[in-house]
Amino acid sequence: MIHILIVDDHVIIRRGLKDILSEDPECSIAGEAGTYEEMMGLMKTTKIDVILLDLGLPDKNGLDIIEEVVGKKNTPPILVLSVHSEDHYGVRVLKAGASGYMNKEVAPTDLIAAVKKVAGGGKYVSATLAEKIAGRLYADADMAIHDLLSNREFQVMKMIASGKTLTEIGIELGLSVKTISTYRMRIMEKTRMRTNSELTHYAFQHKLVE
User: Fold this and answer.
1) CA neighbor of 33 nearest in space, from 49, 57, 62, 16
2) Within its chain, how far is the Cα of 149 from the centroid?
3) What is the DSSP string of 90-112?
4) Residue 17 and residue 8 in contact, taking contact as beta carbons nearer than 8 Å
5) What does the DSSP assignment read for 45-57?
6) What is the SS3 assignment for 176?
7) CA dihedral 46, 50, 52, 58 (to 10 degrees)
8) What angle do CA 94, 187, 206 make, to 5 degrees?
9) Using one digit for the tens of pLDDT, what is the confidence trace for 48-104?
10) Selecting from 3.40.50.300, 3.30.1490.190, 3.20.20.70, 3.40.50.2300, what CATH number does the domain 2-136 have?
């Protein structure tokens, strides 16, 4: 039996995932969480074989969660299920330590297959993402500019592009304005952009923000 922890801040999404996974006799819902804090609490008290994680939790960034918990003793594999395009996050979550990445438009049968695969110690990526990863091994020069950024830089870039000030970003991430300014400077250097307007235009052009 595979014991699954569903972590998503939308109740309707959690309910739908529970219904899908419960149809398979090998899957059991160990619990559900809507925040990072709830997830960590359940990990201490509940038998979990797979964490099904959404990246958009209200109290902590999904990439930060993966980097924080992966590698800890008895941490189960993490399968990310997100609304975001795998072009933007697929490689990032795998590099952070997740065992797989799926878009929320995935077919129920594929979701169950992915859960079973990561529960067995494997990695799950779609054929499209696998092709992209393979391509990068031979064509680093063709990387998108935003792929050159670290996860934190990518997060800050998206927040700047969404119209947030450095102060607002600092408050949300729990970092000083000086630190956010440093991240902005690194972003500008790596992307060879000079203004927030250029950054915003690029982000919308590549559908990094809505």
Assistant:
1) 57
2) 15
3) HHHHHHHT-SEEEETT--HHHHH
4) yes
5) HS--SEEEE-SB-
6) coil
7) 40
8) 65
9) 999 999 998 999 989 899 999 987 888 899 999 988 877 778 888 988 899 999 988
10) 3.40.50.2300
Average pLDDT over residues 172-190: 92
* CA gap 59, 80 in Å, rounded: 17
- What is the overall mean pLDDT for the chain? 89
Token code pair at residue 24 = 């398979």
Backbone angles phi, psi at 189, to 5 degrees: -65, -45
Give the pLDDT confidence score for residue 135 in this predicted structure. 60
- 97 and 53 Cβ atoms separated by less than 8 Å: no
- Class assignment of domain 145-205? mainly alpha
Domain ranges for the chain, please list them. Answer: 2-136, 145-205
Q: How far, rounded to the nearest angstrom, does the alpha carbon of residue 187 sit from its chain's CA centroid?
A: 20
**Residue in 206, 194, 112 with CA at minimum distance from that of residue 154:** 206
First and final C-alpha spacing in the chain: 39
Q: Are 161 and 199 in contact, with CB atoms under 8 Å apart?
A: yes
User: Which residues, at least 6 apart from 8, have a Cβ–Cβ distance to it below 8 Å?
Assistant: 14, 17, 32, 34, 52, 53, 54, 81
